[in-house]
Write a sequence for this structure.
């Protein structure tokens, strides 16, 4: 009998194994103790071990289920879109800390909008400006959120 | 007539001007967001959860429940008009709703979907009113073993009955449970898996996790793909097209009745919810039809049945959530999280300790559904026009709302990093055909599962038989084991048989 393992199942099973092993190693830092008096490490150790078993099962049994509506998550990798979305969010977190709400919002919207190839620079700038104005109006003045508009120095 | 008093209390709470406003806001915003392709109920609720912090608990929950219906119905509009199901439960509505729309009968399809949802929801709400008090009586006798067994059953059902691979569903639940461990252990005070990060002492934030899994991951999956906007909907939707044909009314009323029954039943079961109910309702309608070939080509029962099933399941799913404190699916898990944020402990005591919240919420269910109906008949045209806003302009705004939403929960940018990491992870695993919803359910239930597991075994001095020797937990455990057996059998049978059996 030939076991056919496709690449996707290999990665899936491997990923689960990794997370399982990580959890097991992590829980060994805590007290395990007995079933009657469980320490803080007992439950995560059990979960990690179970996840290792599941990961191994994904690796060795062929996948029989047909994906029905998960199809929209497939398709060609969109490296440009992913990079811009992730970069935009990183900018929000960093600028939010060092520069304030206005620059953070503007950067997030501008950069993430450029991830879509059909957005022109002009459209992205306009969108960023619009959302920033709305953010200041709604969240700063409207909801009185504790987030300084600008941080100096 | 205690029930009648409670129902009156419920409606008087729900109909107070303040709560009515929250309910209306929830339904309206939900509808608006739900129509946008690529944003489902989970993303919408997690995005708006922080806004409800300032409200009183009853108002907050009513707004969230309204959001849920609003997005659910908005999702049906997008499914019917654009053939883009936002959630799995709407995949079925596309099958006949979209052909109807392409035949110029979008109005009729939307109308029947709306009426179907409303009737389905009403049936579900009546069941909640009748059965919740009974279930609460039973729930008071539950010990840790019962709670553990019931949650185990719910988690298994949620992970194995979804579309896609059961093994992967279980893996997602396990990861959710593991993420739930992060933070301070309540029994010993030991900080677990916090990597010395002070922000992790209280555990991962539910909102950050939900927004990452359903917001950021959705955006990552849809950018550059959901380009098509209004091009598909050229036909105008006037009030005239809302009219049904003569026979259609009769056909769909039967389908609505059957769908409501199916939905009510499946909503009650932990871990199942609307998706399964709508699939089963569709299959039943197809089987019962005189001419099954009409299905897939614009059969009105194919829209009416599944929509009613979905919406009555949505309602009855609240029964275990509110009476036992055990959410059946990811949306219910978020609702439960919202309750806990307002310092209300969900469980059997909810009904007696917070009667205004409990009955007010149930009253608001009906008010919310009625509002949805009133709101939608005149607004269908507006929603349709909204569909012409291209996704490339929507998603940057969505990202902003996600970031500001997680920030506002704790006034802390740390959660923005968590959202980003979780979103990237969620998208990666969904490309590998894992479903992210069971992860969230595992995360919310995790601490409760551990607590009850530890307590049950402490009381029994480490004897595992405690889960099998009591009738309710024993039954749950047996069903859970059967479920595993069925999945294992299917998996084994699915392997290609060896050519030579030597």
């Amino acid at each position: 009998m030939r076991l056919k393992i496709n690449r996707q199942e290999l990665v899936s099973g491997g990923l689960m194994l990794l997370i399982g092993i990580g959890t097991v190693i992590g829980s060994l830092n805590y007290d395990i103790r007995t079933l009657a008096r469980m320490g803080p490490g007992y439950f995560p150790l059990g979960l990690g071990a179970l996840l290792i078993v599941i990961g191994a099962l994904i690796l060795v049994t062929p996948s029989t289920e047909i994906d029905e509506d998960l199809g929209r998550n497939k398709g060609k990798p969109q490296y440009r879109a992913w990079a811009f979305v992730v970069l935009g969010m990183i900018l929000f977190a960093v600028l939010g800390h060092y520069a304030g709400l206005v620059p953070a919002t503007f950067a997030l919207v501008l950069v993430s909008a450029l991830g879509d190839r059909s957005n022109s620079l002009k459209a992205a700038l306009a969108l960023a400006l619009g959302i920033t104005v709305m953010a200041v109006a709604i969240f700063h003045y409207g909801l009185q959120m504790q987030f300084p508009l600008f941080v100096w120095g | 007539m205690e029930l009648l008093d409670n129902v009156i209390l419920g409606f008087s709470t729900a109909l107070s001007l303040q709560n009515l406003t929250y309910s209306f806001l929830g339904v309206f915003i939900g509808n608006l967001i739900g129509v946008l392709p690529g944003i489902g109920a989970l993303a919408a609720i997690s995005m708006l959860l922080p806004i409800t912090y300032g409200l009183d608990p009853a108002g907050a929950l009513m707004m969230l429940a309204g959001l849920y219906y609003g997005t659910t119905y908005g999702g049906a509009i997008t499914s019917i008009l654009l053939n883009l199901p936002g959630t799995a439960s709407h995949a079925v509505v596309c099958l006949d709703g979209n052909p109807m729309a392409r035949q110029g009968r979008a109005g009729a399809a939307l109308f029947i979907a709306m009426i179907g949802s409303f009737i389905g929801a009403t049936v579900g709400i009546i069941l909640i009113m009748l059965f919740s008090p009974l279930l609460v009586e039973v729930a008071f006798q539950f010990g840790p073993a019962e709670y553990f067994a019931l949650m185990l059953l719910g988690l298994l059902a949620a992970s194995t009955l979804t579309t896609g691979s059961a093994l992967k569903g279980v893996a997602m639940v396990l990861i959710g449970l593991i993420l739930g461990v992060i933070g301070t252990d309540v029994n010993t005070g030991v900080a677990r898996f916090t990597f010395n990060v002070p922000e992790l002492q209280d555990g991962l934030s539910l909102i950050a996790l939900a927004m990452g899994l359903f917001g950021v991951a959705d955006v990552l999956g849809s950018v550059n793909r959901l380009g098509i906007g209004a091009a598909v909907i050229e036909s105008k939707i006037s009030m005239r097209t809302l009219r049904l044909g003569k026979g259609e009314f009769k056909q769909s009323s039967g389908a609505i009745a059957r769908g409501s029954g199916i939905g009510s039943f499946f909503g009650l079961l932990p871990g199942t919810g609307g998706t399964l109910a709508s699939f089963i309702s569709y299959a039943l309608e197809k089987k019962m039809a005189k001419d099954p070939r009409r299905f897939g080509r614009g059969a009105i029962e194919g829209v009416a049945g599944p929509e009613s099933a979905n919406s009555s399941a949505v309602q009855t799913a609240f029964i275990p959530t509110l009476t036992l404190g055990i959410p059946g699916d990811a949306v219910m898990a978020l609702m439960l999280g919202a309750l806990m944020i307002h310092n209300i402990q969900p469980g059997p005591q909810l009904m007696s300790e917070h009667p205004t919240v409990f009955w007010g919420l149930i009253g608001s269910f009906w008010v919310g559904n009625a509002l949805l109906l009133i709101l939608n008949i005149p607004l269908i045209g507006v929603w349709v026009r909204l569909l012409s806003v291209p996704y490339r302009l929507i998603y940057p705004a969505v990202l902003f709302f996600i970031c500001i939403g997680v920030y506002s929960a704790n006034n802390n940018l740390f959660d923005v990093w968590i959202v980003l990491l979780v979103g990237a992870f969620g998208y990666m695993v969904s490309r590998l055909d894992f479903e992210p919803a069971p992860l969230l359910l595992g995360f919310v239930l995790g601490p409760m599962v551990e607590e009850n597991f530890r307590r049950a075994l402490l009381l029994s001095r480490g004897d595992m038989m405690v889960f099998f020797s009591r009738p309710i937990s024993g039954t749950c455990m047996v069903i859970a084991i059967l479920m595993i057996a069925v999945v294992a059998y299917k998996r084994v049978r699915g392997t290609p048989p060896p050519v030579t059996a030597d």
Notes: Residues 228-234, 496-502 of chain B have pLDDT under 50 and may be disordered.
